[in-house]
Amino acid sequence: MSSGLSDLLYRRPYSDPEAKKRLRSEDELLHLDLVITEFCTRKCRDCSNLMQYYHKPEHLSADNVISDLGKVLGVLRVHELKILGGEPFANPGVLIEVLRFLAGAQGSRVDKINIITNGTVIPDETCIEAMKADPKVEVTFSNYGSVSSRQDEFVELCKANGIRHVVIDGSFYWLDFGRPVKYLESRDFVERQYKHCYNRKNCNTLYRGGFYACPRQAHGIHLGLLPDDKDGYADLYDPGYQSPDDLKLAILRVVRRKKPVAACSYCINGKYIHVPRGVQKAPENG
Ligand code: SF4
Asked: How confident is the model at residue 26, as a pLDDT?
């Protein structure tokens, strides 16, 4: 074990009580968001994950997603793995491959698999079978009312196939995270916002070989809209890692980080401005 990791884990264990909440043990993340596609069937105006900014969204490949997931599971257990996009059922081939991978040996390192959907796509029989095969799978319907056009049909399919599912209460609101531009907020505001941020506590994100504090940071960097601050996330394929412990340490540094990442200066969720969920963006001219 590298001295850095032993320092972090054993000499000063859980000095940050918030970080403790995000780890069930020294070896287990409470939550992890796994992105399998940038494609979404809807264009929510206020999507905090910045999906509305993808003009040429891509599906991620099964090889890459499984390689990333295998790397994380090789060093840490995950209590709840959330599979999302965009819309994960828009990339069914990769979703099925990921579920099959999780049915294998490394799946024992995940306690719950939660697939987050906007309820617009009905999965085919192969996908239903893959979900049915694993009792750890649950489907969460984000429930945007009429925008979730096929939700009722999909819920019935879950019931008929014994697939656990949850429909979010449609009366919830979203917080406005703002456009991805630099805001002239004080350092104090940015630090407080980061400290209390739900997303960085519950939505650490695995995306294209990186482990990020939140999905907005991950997609904002990939889209070129937010600064690529290399110290703000863990590159799973950094050739500098000498051992699996180095990778584990890099991931835990993101989870336990106390300072805001650069993306936080481009975010205003800490103003707690409420916006309705799922409002569709007006079509762009041209
Ligand atoms: S950019 Fe910072 S404040 Fe905004 S959601 Fe991500 S971690 Fe939270």
From this structure: 75
**Structure tokens belonging to residue 70:** 């295998």
Phi-psi region for residue 208, left (φ > 0), alpha (ψ -120 to 50) or beta? left
Let me know: does 29 contact 23? Beta carbons within 8 Å: yes
Domain assignment present for 283 = no
Residue 25: which pLDDT band, with cuts at 50, 70 and 90?
low
By residue range, what is the domain housing residue 228?
16-276
C-alpha distances in angstroms, 33 versus 7, 214, 216, 271?
Answer: 27, 9, 12, 24
CA distances to 30, 90, 123 from 130, rounded to whole Å, are 24, 15, 10
Q: What is the pLDDT of residues 117-127, one digit of tens each?
A: 999 999 999 99
- C-beta 269 within 6 A of ligand 1: yes
Report yes or no on 3 lying in a domain: no
Q: Taking the CA atoms of 67, 69, 75 and 77 in sequence, report the sign of the dihedral they define.
A: negative
Q: Name the residue of 189, 195, 217 whose CB sits within 8 Å of the most ligand 1 atoms, as the mutation to test its pocket.
A: 217
Name the band, by pLDDT with cuts 50, 70 and 90, for residue 169: confident
Is residue 190 assigned to a domain?
yes
**Domain of 83: which CATH number?**
3.20.20
Domain count, the chain: 1
Q: Which of 177, 183, 203 to mutate to test the pocket of ligand 1 (most atoms within 8 A of CB)?
A: 177
Q: Looking at residue 28, what is its pLDDT?
A: 93
pTM to 2 decimals?
Answer: 0.91
Distance 198 CA to ligand 1 centre (A): 8
CA 52, distance to chain mean position in Å, is 16
Q: Which of 9-23, 77-91, 144-158 is predicted least confidently?
A: 9-23
